[in-house]
Amino acid sequence: PFERGAMCNPIHLYKGIWYRAHSLEAAMAFQRHFQARDTDIILATAPKSGTTWLKSLVFAVTHRSQYPVTDQNHPLLTTNPHGVVPFLELIYRNNKNPDLTSTPPPRIYSTHVPYTMLPESVQTSKCQIIYLCRNPKDIFVSMWHFGNMLLKDIPSSQPITIEESFERFCKGITMFGPCWEQALEYWKKSIEKPEEILFLKYEDLKANINSQLKRIAKHLGCPFSSEEENEGVIEDIANLCSFKHLSNLEVNKTGKLFFFQVVENNVFFSKGEVGDWINILTPSMVEKLDQVVEHKLNGSGLTLN
Ligand code: A3P
């Protein structure tokens, strides 16, 4: 049934995290078979926290000598970021033991699974993990819109009301949820293993993309040279990957890709703003979700608001 729409697929709780059935199966295959290399880069996120943006940024940074950012043939101009950097869950959903050995380094993959579900080779190798979190209130609003967009393609389905969706979200019942649980786990690991895990926030990327691009490049062992800085390479990457630029590319306006169902590339670009929740959530919703998140993060040093 997920071919018609992942939203119809049952959702299961496994080790404290909710998965759609097909995602859990794929996550388990990925955990069992994926062999990490020290040169791999794994981008970990909760759904709707800016995965598409992170994919484009990391690809542009790491491939800048092969594809100069202003190159007219840059892959990000003709391929959706999810085509450029694939999800491991999708690779392993389609083939339980794919051969990924011929992909040249650095191999960049993304995942929504929690740290504890990552294959042992990822946890023990020197491969780099970048985790991107986002304010759960913005994640919720983004996810609610996204879910209803996907449901439009499913005959006789009804839109999900915000109230119903919100109750489930507060209980953590969303794909790979609760998102605050996952963020906290990666946060703690990033403190334990700062050499291997870089923890980023969507809001910081929006506030100062240049400084965050420098952190990303440094963490991945390819810092910007002063020459590159003078030539404006950082600004060029920021512009190439900006919401305005990516969402207006023909490929992202009209193309489609097989996600867990066929989706239009434009579903990954909605508003790309910080704080849209204020226009959507009632004060009591805000209070409730803030309480749930604060209770979980209390004393950890991590804030998601
Ligand atoms: P909104 O729905 O709030 O607009 P993901 O990629 O994890 O699915 O997250 C999608 C969210 O990231 C959407 O948020 C989308 O608009 C936003 N987004 C996509 N590309 C972006 C970009 N280049 N810059 C900033 N935000 C972006």
Q: How far do the termini sit from each other?
A: 36 Å
Q: Count of DSSP E strands?
A: 8
Strand line-up across the major sheet: 4-3-5-6
As a percent range, the share of helical residues equals: 40-55%
- Cα Rg: 19 Å
Q: Total number of helical segments?
A: 16
Order of helices and strands: EEHEHHHHEHEHHHEHHHHHHEEH
Q: Identify low-pLDDT runs.
A: 1-5
Which ions and ligands are bound to the chains?
Answer: adenosine-3'-5'-diphosphate
Output mean pLDDT. Answer: 93
Mind summarizing the main beta sheet? 4 strands, parallel
Structural class: alpha/beta
Strand content: 5-15%
Q: What general outline do the C-alpha atoms trace? A: globular
GO molecular function: sulfotransferase activity
Protein name: Sulfotransferase
Keywords: Transferase
Family: Belongs to the sulfotransferase 1 family.
Structure description:
By secondary structure, this protein is of the alpha/beta class. Helices cover 46% and strands 11% of the residues. It contains 16 helices and eight strands. β1 (11-14) and β2 form a beta hairpin. The protein is globular, with a radius of gyration of 19 Å. 39% of the residues are buried.
